[in-house]
């Protein structure tokens, strides 16, 4: 008989016990062993097969971790799940169904999960979504200290300066209910001196975009030192002016003959106030109501970072502010984007660049997918090569947006 005042404890189901065992095994398993454990869990709950596909460095291919064909992001059902960030269901043959679910670490897309099952109902669908969530976290966690996943997402060797820069780069996309930041950069395997950084706290989205002088190892080192200087200052509680001074000091001290352009920015997720310091970089672009607001964030140019030891009359950096409206987008970019040119010398240009983003927003395309397609369009415009690094960041302020829920199309 139950004692008065003591809540009744619901006994765990067999499937819950199996999932608990899977979660416990994650900590003791290697990168591939954990996928095998997930396969055993899937078999125990009635699924036929589970396969994890990770997206490659350029977001063109979905590469299986445990055998199977490599799939194209732009022309496969798996790619459709990745591009649209939704579950996709197809016939799997032999009286089976084939489910493709996005694998996401927070807002960042890392790949897709393929599940074959003889039947599907609400409990099975819930377990599949839960399994996808767990495996995305596992991939992100184990990728930090194992090369297994990284090697599978590269189609060729990475240059030394690129390896150094990529060690500093954050996930491509991060976000919360009130805002998102997403970025892409090319050439993926031969970066010179471009880099980006972003971070999010309870009420603030931080963003950095950098373009270091040159295309050699010192360029990568310059961008890496600048990024480290920005992170160090940010994590010590510095405001934008102090952060910029810290980066300036780091470059002058350790790399006195190098310089870079940059934008350091914050977005107050509560108020929508966008603040930035522009160090000789292309001005941020504002897209509002599906159109470019020309000149909205143009300000008097200031010197690049790293010249404090050259010019004795360098003025303190100016922190600019602009009040965003819900739904506004801010584009940060390096000049390799607009200056990209084809064999006839025709530039990709600012108009084509902003029009691409506006059209995608009008179609309600997710921001990460917009930038994925955009960087590929710039690549194709140059006949498959980059004469300069090209980096794009897109920030959105969405204070009225609810927490996204999984949906089935």
| Global mean pLDDT | 90
Report the end-to-end length measured between terminal Cα atoms: 48 Å
Radius of gyration: 23 Å
Number of helices: 11
Helices and strands, in N-to-C order? Answer: HHEEEHEEEHHHEEEEHHEEEEEEHHHE
Number-wise, the strands total 17
Sheet having the most strands = 6 strands, antiparallel
In terms of per-residue confidence, which ranges show pLDDT below 50 for 5 or more consecutive residues? 402-409
Percent in strands: 25-35%
Strand arrangement across the biggest beta sheet: 3-2-1-6-5-4
Shape call = globular
**What is the percent of helical residues?**
25-40%
List the topology elements.
Blueprint: H1 14-26, H2 33-44, E1 49-55, E2 61-64, E3 71-72, H3 77-84, E4 88-93, E5 96-105, E6 108-117, H4 122-143, H5 148-152, H6 160-168, E7 173-176, E8 179-186, E9 194-200, E10 204-212, H7 217-235, H8 240-254, E11 260-268, E12 273-279, E13 285-288, E14 291-292, E15 320-323, E16 329-333, H9 335-338, H10 350-362, H11 367-381, E17 390-397
Helix pairs in contact: 1-2, 6-7, 7-8, 10-11
